[in-house]
Amino acid sequence: MTDSNIVIRGAREHNLKNINISIPRDTLTVITGVSGSGKSSLAFDTIFAEGQRRYVESLSAYARQFLGRMEKPDVDHIEGLSPSISIDQKGVSKNPRSTVGTVTEIYDYLRLLFSRAGRPHCHNCGRPVQRQTIQQIVDSILKWDEGTRLQILAPMITHMKGEHVQVFETARRDGFVRVRIDGDTRELAEELKLAKTKWHNIEVVVDRIIVREDTDRGRLTESVETALRLAGGNLIASKLGTGKKGDDEDVVYSEHFACVHCDISIAELEPRNFSFNTPFGACPTCTGLGFKLEVDPDLVIQDQSLSLNNGAITPWALSGTNSPWYHSTLESLSQHFGFSMDMPIREMDVEHLSVILYGTAGSKLEVSHQTQKGKVYSWNTAFDGVIPNMERRHVDTESDSVREDIARYMTQRACATCGGARLKPEVLAVTVLGMNVMEVTGQSVENALRWVEACRTGVWPGEGEHDGDAEDPLSSREQSIATQILKEVEARLGFLSRVGLDYLTLNRAAATLSGGEGQRIRLATQIGSGLMGVLYVCDEPSVGLHPADNDRLIGTLQNLRDVGNTVLIVEHDEAVMRAADHIVDMGPGAGQFGGNVVVEGPIEAVLESEESLTGAYLSGRKSIPVPKKRRKGNGNEIAIIGARANNLKNVSVAIPLGTLTCVTGVSGSGKSTLVNEILSKKLSQHFYRSKDRPGEHDEVLGLEHVDKVINIDQSAIGRTPRSNPATYTGVFTNIRDIFASMPESKARGYKAGRFSFNVKGGRCEACSGAGYVQIEMQFLPDVTVPCEICLGARYNREALEIKFKGKSIAEVLDMTVSEAAVVFENIPSISNKMKTLTDVGLGYVHLGQPATTLSGGEAQRIKLASELSKRSTGKTVYILDEPTTGLSFDDAAKLMIVLHRLVDAGNSIILIEHHLDLIKNADWILEMGPLAGERGGQVIAEGTPEFVASVKKSSTGQYLAEMNGITPSAKAAGTTKARKFNTSVNGSARDEITLPDRPAAYANGASKSRRNTGRYRRRRRGAPAAQ
């Protein structure tokens, strides 16, 4: 075999049937097939895993211990492998500090740009910050209050680990007597030993002075000169004992930057000052997160029609009324401030509500409480308010249940100090072209490219938010500093734009990216690396891309191939398949019926293959049918009014209930914001008291027509191998009950727990019910072997002796769904669920198959089958975000059957989807657009697929019009005009009031505890009040 192929012999990983295959190198190869046919097992678990393992094995034994052990795939032989890089959909960080800018390293270059070419301003007055001369520093110090005791310090070490012995030696040699170490002043004569592994700040004490009229100006000038010389242009003047808690107050002076008007100095700017992940740049209140967790007044008072006596304060109410202690407190407040306890919240004065929610701001009132025995106690105290009280208890409590209970009323809100900007005010005052670093990252990739061009030329190119001459253009000196940085930033922004992500803002949290977006970001960084001779393995990079955006992605993948790489893609998208050089179709079925190569070769070979399901759909021999009739719905609707979150432009839309509604549009047009950020979170908050705050909108109407919302995604049905389809669907409980009801079980006294492999009793204790034992092999990968005692059955001998229809519990778990449906045909609680699983195309899945081995599509269909087998109320809303991810044409056809069954039962389904076969099956389409990011966020058209296909401005309509079974018709139900809604509930205008905001005096978020203060002590009981 030539070196131009990757040759695989005897691949048996998971369900692969000992296959032999040859994949040409330096090509764009697509591996496709039905869900569960073995695509990922071949691409990721065999080819990529072996390429990665061989690279790691080439390292020394010492290096390998830090990388973890790589298991060898179950394959006889692979040759022609290159170093492998996996670009899957699981690599996006969920850390709230991770953003698009940090993941792509663009933010690192921006930090460098702003620290070297940024223009500092005073964060107090906005004036440009100037360098300070020694004379200005001396004059500033002498203006301090008479009698101020101060130390002139030279900062030698700032936030660095180490023992720093040399610093102390140099200071002693230069004749200095004292140093300040981490805030404590120490004598240099004593032995100073620092912890090597801790961060330290070390300043040499140059002089100690008291500010008076007769202060020796010459001595102070000399001390300032010495400190500036020692510390390279910086010094600290420390006022002794003038801080809020009696500690020292440091004032930083610099020969470099200071505002002489406000007497504010800032230290030399470094890239770390612009990082929200270090104490040097991060906002001290929110530690650089940009938000704080705080109690939400709208969750505390959920029903404004209730009075205080009727339990309007939800966390203080027990079964509709206030708990006695809190009731006494509220009564005392009502007597002191003169408001009624029986008045509905919506009719109360805002001032009174502010007192109830946020306290009396330190002023005291008399509080009386009557015990159950009738004894009355009174005392004078300040009331801290419902919300500060809950936030303090959230911090102080040692009880997890109390903390969880309070957390239900808390939401994330922008930090009051930085306004969500994450950085310190002095850092945000540094600008380039009149914009600070967070304003630059707040732009979309497209606008950031315009900003880079404006930095170079001083003129904003094209049309957008900014145009014409740029504010504060860079000087020639700044231009020369910025040239290389701007080149790197522009290159990375260009890669993001090329993979269809020009609508993303650089400050968007990485955790909010879809799997497809995260994968394309990683793809963009790989293009930037410029490597060649590498094997790239991608998992459905087209996920989340509208057909109109596919061309750019395909061009990017071909670019990776053209520079000398092999690109291997697991994919179902027709456009990507037609652009591929080589296609491998796995199948013919799923699970145990798959694992073979049905056909491989160019697209023509696949189209001609009679055995290939993929070829049948691509060639048109098979297709997903269009429904003969569109549902009109049940006459009710959910209306979202005034949606303004992210890029939405004050959108108001209605989603008809009792229909299959599809929300579509180009990538980044606002689909996920509308459905996931606003509608889904609002419904979850309404039905389940979720603490996730919905995106900005006016209101959502029609909630009375719904009784629950279920979000079905493709996440695994369990995180451990102990979870399986039987446990998830609940049939395992019924199966264990059946085995416990057998005469032999009753004779032995076995209960249902005896037949669980998770608890002691019936399980095999040698392997703890796992069925296998993992043997550690030091530097070699761990070896997994079947348990010697139970031989993989998971149960002990006694449990296996109990039989139902001749089958033991282990044999039942090893059955497929189809086999179990026959065995349990007379037991409706089991047979109904088995039938539903078979209907959704999962008859091949084993009942005891570990959840971790199920594909995303299989996990999703198991969830849908569980819903189908429940008794329908006909008022459920199901939300699915791109359910066709990982699904072949045939799987998508099976999914459509399930979705139609759910809607036929009276439920409502809202899909976010780009797959044209699902879109053409919808009863109602809602298209967002017209473009991505700031140029999107509007409703382009809403109506039936036939109507949307007739709208010329519709990107989706253009593709729908070309599909078989769709006849464009402008007379079909639908509209391109914005609807107007009557914002009323049950015929009466909404009269709820806006609850008062947190007073400025309160820091936002639960941060202050009374536990460690001297004033926190047990309250004494007061004398009984006069009767």
List keywords for this structure.
single chain; 1027 residues; alpha+beta; seven-stranded mixed beta sheet; six-stranded mixed beta sheet; 20% strand; disordered C terminus
Q: Bin the helical content.
A: 25-40%
Distance between the termini: 104 Å
Strand order of the largest sheet: 30-33-34-28-35-36-37
Approximate shape = globular
Could you tell me the radius of gyration in angstroms? 34 Å
Q: How many individual helices?
A: 34
Structural class label: alpha+beta
Q: Which range does the strand content fall in?
A: 15-25%
**Low-confidence parts:** 984-990, 1006-1027
On the 0-100 scale, what is the average pLDDT?
86
Q: Secondary structure elements and their pairing?
A:
Blueprint: E1 5-11, E2 19-24, E3 28-33, H1 39-57, H2 61-67, E4 75-79, E5 84-87, H3 100-103, H4 106-117, H5 134-142, E6 149-161, H6 165-173, E7 178-181, E8 184-187, E9 199-210, H7 217-230, E10 234-239, E11 249-254, E12 257-259, E13 264-266, E14 291-295, H8 297-300, E15 317-318, E16 321-322, H9 324-337, H10 350-358, E17 364-370, E18 376-382, H11 386-396, H12 400-407, E19 410-414, H13 425-428, H14 437-441, H15 445-457, E20 459-460, E21 468-469, H16 476-498, H17 515-529, E22 535-539, H18 550-562, E23 566-570, H19 574-579, E24 582-587, E25 596-601, H20 603-608, H21 613-619, E26 637-643, E27 651-656, E28 660-665, H22 671-688, E29 699-701, E30 708-711, H23 725-729, H24 731-740, H25 743-748, E31 772-777, E32 780-786, H26 797-800, H27 809-813, H28 817-823, H29 828-839, H30 856-868, E33 876-881, H31 889-904, E34 908-912, H32 916-919, E35 924-929, E36 938-943, H33 945-948, H34 955-960, E37 974-975, E38 984-985, E39 988-989
Parallel strand pairs: 3-23, 3-24, 5-22, 22-23, 28-34, 28-35, 30-33, 33-34
Antiparallel strand pairs: 1-2, 1-4, 6-9, 6-10, 7-8, 7-9, 10-11, 12-13, 14-19, 15-16, 17-18, 20-21, 24-25, 26-27, 26-29, 31-32, 35-36, 36-37, 38-39
Helix pairs in contact: 4-16, 5-7, 11-12, 15-16, 16-17, 28-29, 29-30, 30-31
